[in-house]
């Protein structure tokens, strides 16, 4: 079921969707992934596979599958080759080749539910929303965990952004189909590092959007347990990449007035979180970012943040002496 906010603006004609999938080190998963994507029933799809300099046989397997099972879709498939630069850069490369009305980012070790793209397209046609978001399932080796989103109205987009930073909603790109013009009409900051980069991108897109719609369906299967995945890295590396990504995001919009700043509602959260991570994990960010202590001192403590109130208070107190 799709909660409709713009039903009076129903889209006429087909909606085209560009699916972007970076490929790196997934040869044991690529067949299941490619089958789930290329067998989608919806016809108006462009498939963009970005070879991020993978060293295994992922691309060989993909090309063979296309030739053997999906040759009829070959005209709508682009395989882009580039040197390895990580997930954010690979997604950005895919965007350069996308021509669809909407963009959907997926990971090549995961898989889509049957008819997922048709359901997404139907929701877009019914609502004309800039962003359609939906539920997904985390797939562990021995169990599954359903991740159900909250339904937000257009006027609650700021709540949606805030909740992405307190884990009450999901900042993932894999459960969102996004109007491509949000990327092309705005200068979206793309983080350098892979950990939580999708949350940085998503908050900007939601901030720039005019309309969102929730599709209450479980359409994406997110694999947990891939040893090469970003979430398998050691915790200090993950926390450092997260802190650097959110600070770079903050700097991209720092100083802009609130009505021009798509992330204004979480700026205080960002600097306090980054300061706390620096203190706990020894990241030395106060020395590397000269503005950080001052901006933390100015930031407001907020209930419902990802950090406990005590952690926020301690971070602000320590920032007074930096």
Description:
This protein is α/β, with parallel strands linked by helices and about 325 residues long. It contains twelve helices and ten strands. Strands 1, 2, 3, 4, 5, 6, 7, 8, 9 and 10 form a ten-stranded mixed beta sheet that branches.
Oligomer: single chain
Which sheet architecture does the biggest sheet show? 10 strands, mixed
Radius of gyration: 20 Å
Estimated share of beta-strand residues = 15-25%
Low-confidence segments, given as residue ranges, are none
- How many DSSP H or I helices? 12
Share of helix, binned: 25-40%
How many strand units?
10
Shape: globular
Order of helices and strands: EEHEHEHEEHEEHEHHEHHHHH
Mean pLDDT, rounded to whole units? 94
SS-derived structural category: alpha/beta
Report the end-to-end length measured between terminal Cα atoms: 51 Å
Q: Briefly, what is this?
A:
With 322 residues, the protein is α/β, with parallel strands linked by helices.
Task: List its salient traits.
12 helices, alpha/beta, 10 strands, 322 residues, 10-stranded mixed sheet
Q: What layout of secondary structure does this protein have?
A:
Elements (H helix, E strand, L loop, with lengths): L1 E2 L13 E7 L6 H9 L6 E8 L5 H12 L7 E6 L4 H11 L4 E4 L5 E2 L3 H12 L3 E9 L4 E4 L9 H8 L11 E4 L1 H4 L12 H12 L3 E12 L11 H19 L13 H15 L3 H4 L3 H7 L10 H11 L3
Helix pairs in contact: 1-2, 5-7, 8-9, 9-11, 9-12, 11-12
